[in-house]
Specification:
heterodimer; A: mainly alpha; Helix Hairpins; B: 310 residues; mainly alpha; Four Helix Bundle (Hemerythrin (Met), subunit A); 2 domains
């Protein structure tokens, strides 16, 4: 295969943009979004790697991505609960 | 067909940039959700339809609902910020350089092809007959690499427990604000279809794209719809039935692995004759646990009840 694979560029770009956002954003929800962008880039890269097998896509990276999606959502949901709690505690302090 | 791939890649990058740079947090969240859906589309093109289903249902759908729910609970204007552009100052410039170098190196790495194919994938495809299911990804998840999936259920449960601990100081009799924003007809029209699709996806996981995670996420989506249309709501109390269902996935998985040790001699090895029914049992209990965990992560309460019930 020759030439540039556009989705490989997208995977690398997602990781780059996610890291950029993670370094520069201050708000917690935005940082969570940035980590998830990075994660989405990693998933896309794994799926591209899975296509290297000659007979059909490799199921092992696919299973890893599926596990990864659920773990990412669990961790993000916990992070969002922390954000909500922090906002509520601050609100209580102010009133 | 590279034209479509290029368009998808371009849109993904633009949406990611928008998600990071949008001033309003709501716009950033919406960009993230759209990006998730486009990502799912690109995975369909990369021969990964089951992952596309999971990304659309969990990564874009449920995570989107969670993000928007959190946005709604924050004070207005909270989280609106303008991040500095790459040329505005030394720090952004340095970070941009680092991220660009990373992206370029990763692009180069993704274009290199190793001489040797991945052995684990070949081994999995070779032994597919022994797995009890025809779908390679399901076989890897529930049989060949069952540890991963079991521990993943543990992570999901831990996240739920952590979330409930954080939200618990809400006094028990607090009236939660009415969440009825959608007409009830919506639920009546779509709920049967959503339930049907969810159960079908769980069942189909054995031989075609689908599986416990995708089906569970769709079932959780049905629950979210019930809450948004005002039929159900979160409850401060939970019952043992709910707890049993939440832990059920991990428990059934562990028990099936443990009880068969005398027969097969190894943890999580299944005897040839029983393997298919065990897979289906594990798959359905996992799907139920996943659906309930995701739904409770959304409500942030330990229990569920019909609206108006005490």
């Amino acid at each position: 295969m020759t030439g540039i694979e556009p989705l490989a560029v997208a995977a690398a770009g997602l990781m780059g943009i996610g890291l950029y956002g993670f370094c520069l954003c201050r708000h917690a929800v935005r940082r969570l979004l940035s980590i998830n962008l990075f994660g989405n880039g990693v998933f896309l890269a794994l799926i591209l790697i899975a296509r290297r097998l000659p007979d059909g896509p490799d199921p092992v990276p696919h299973a890893m991505v599926l596990t990864g999606i659920v773990i990412a959502v669990s961790a993000t949901a916990f992070g969002l609960a922390l954000v909500r709690r922090q906002a509520r505690t601050r609100g209580d302090d102010e009133t | 067909m590279t034209a479509l791939d290029s368009l998808l890649a371009l849109l993904l990058l633009l949406l990611a940039a928008r998600c990071v740079s949008a001033r309003s947090l709501l716009q950033a969240i919406v960009a993230f959700i759209v990006l998730g859906l486009l990502l799912a589309l690109s995975w369909v093109r990369l021969e990964a339809p089951d992952l596309a289903l999971a990304e659309a249902a969990i990564g874009a759908g449920l995570l989107g609902v969670l993000l928007l729910g959190t946005w709604r609970s924050l004070p207005l204007g909270h989280g609106n910020e303008r991040i500095p552009l790459p040329w505005q100052g030394l720090r952004p410039a340095l970070i941009t350089t680092g991220c660009t170098v990373l992206a370029v190196l990763l692009t180069v790495a993704l274009h290199q092809h190793p001489e040797q194919a991945a052995m684990s994938g070949l081994a999995a495809l070779d032994q597919l007959d022994a797995a009890g299911v025809d779908q390679p990804v399901t076989a890897v998840l529930l049989n060949f690499r069952a540890y991963d999936t079991l521990l993943e259920m543990g992570v999901l449960l831990m996240a739920l427990i952590g979330t409930l601990m954080l939200d618990s100081p809400l006094p028990r009799d607090t009236e939660l604000p009415a969440r009825t924003m959608l007409p009830a007809t919506l639920a009546q029209l779509f709920l049967p279809l959503i339930l049907l699709i969810g159960l079908y996806l769980v069942w189909a996981g054995a031989y075609s794209p689908g599986g416990a995670f995708q089906g569970g996420a769709v079932l959780a989506g049905a629950g979210v719809l019930l809450i948004l249309t005002g039929f159900g709501e979160g409850d401060g109390r939970d019952g043992w039935v709910l707890r049993a269902l939440l832990a059920g996935g991990a428990l059934v998985f562990t028990l099936a692995g443990l009880l068969l040790i005398p027969v097969t001699g190894a943890f999580m090895a299944y005897p040839q004759g029983l393997v298919t029914p065990i897979m289906v049992l594990i798959e359905f209990s996992l799907a139920l646990s996943i659906a309930l965990s995701l739904l409770l992560l959304y409500t942030g309460t330990p229990g569920l009840r019909r609206r108006g019930e005490r």
